[in-house]
Every structure is written in structure tokens, then in C-alpha cells.
Amino acid sequence: MPIKLFYNEMSPSCRAVLLTARALAVDLELEKVNIYAKEQIDENLIRLNPDHTIPTLVDNDVVIWDSHEIVSYLVEKYGEEDSLYPKESTQRALVDQKLNFDSDTLFPMINAIISSIVIENEKEISTDKISAITEAYKLLDAFLEDSTYLAGDCLTIADFCCVANVSTATIIIPISTEKYPNLSTWYRNFKNLEYYEETNGDGLNKLDALVELKLGRPRNKELCD
């Protein structure tokens, strides 16, 4: 049976899974869920995932939700080698550390901002939310001071998860090359990956257009400069 992913391409968490699957050359059967039409509370999805969240992965009789769990599962089961999620304890700890930063800092920040615009129809982005993004950029830039990727010099699932949220943050504030040179280089390298646009860029562009529509005006991308 094919591996099925319940997803929405505008969701950063779903895009992290798409990036990982593409890097592993794992084919997914995609089942789109319109979260803004509340399709995630469909009884068929709830039967699979009582938490009714996306992404939700179905691999035969295995059902997994939470993007971090999904991407680690895909690497463990389908990776020909372990570079994306190393088995060696020190390297894995570094990857897990950045995954925790993604779940504890990046995702809540981005989710709060996008939800306030798309769901709550707020027309202004508070200075506190702007400051949260710039502070996250500063931390990420520091993480990348001595390494090509977030957990060392090899691409890992931590990079996939974080870039999905960081790219979403750029909808609100672009990454200043002058202020955040390491982060800027990391992001540019991602955008040069052959599979970036189809797995992350396309969904990001759709979300970008939705945010502009909801704000009723072009976003002020000069807020941080």
C-alpha cells in the first residue's frame, strides 16, 4: 500500500514532511485537507488521528502525527543511510536540540502570527510579534556561525523542519543579509535545492498570497530593516 499523507501545502509542518520525503526519494500519496474549511475534523481523519491534526502519515497499519515524529520515522525506516538523522548519540543530540528549538520557539511564533491574520482577521502585526521573529533570526544566525547547517556540516531533518517555519517568517519579515549573514546563506542554499520549490516554495507562495489577501494590502517587508 502507498504511504498516505494528510496535509495542506500551506502548513509549514506539512512542508517539512514533504522536504524530507523528497530528500529520501519516498513517494507519498497526498490527501489534501483544507484546514480553513475545518476538514481536519472529518470523521475519517479523526478515526485515524483523534487529535485531528495535520500532517498525519499512514503507512500500512502505522499512523503517525506530529511533523517531527513523521520525519524521524521516515528516515529511520526508509533512509539508505542515517545522515539526515544520525544514530551516533552526540550528533543525534545536536539534531534533537534544534528540533526542540523548532517546536518550542519557531513553530509557536509562526503559528500565532499566521493564525492571527488568517483566522482572526487581524490587520496589524504587533511589535511584540515582529520582535519575536527578529530574535529568532538572531539565534539562528548564531547557531550557524561555525557550521553549514543547524546541527553541523550535514543536512538533517532539523534543517527541513526549521526552514519550513523560517521561510514562513519571511512572509512577514525578510532575512536581512547584512544583519543575519549566516542565516541568509543557509536559506539561500536551501532555495537552490532542486526539490525546494515543489516541496516548500509552492505552498509558501500560496500562504503568502493568502496573507496579503487577508491583510487587504501589501505586507510591509521593511519592518526589520
UniProtKB/TrEMBL annotation:
GO terms for biological process: glutathione metabolic process. CDD domains: GST_C_Delta_Epsilon (cd03177), GST_N_Delta_Epsilon (cd03045). Residues 88-222 form the GST C-terminal domain. SUPFAM superfamilies: GST C-terminal domain-like, Thioredoxin-like. It comes from the Eukaryota. PROSITE patterns: GST_CTER (PS50405), GST_NTER (PS50404). Keywords: Transferase. Signal peptide: none annotated. One of its GO terms (molecular function) is glutathione transferase activity. Residues 1-82 form the GST N-terminal domain. Homodimer. This is Carboxylesterase. It comes from Propylea japonica.
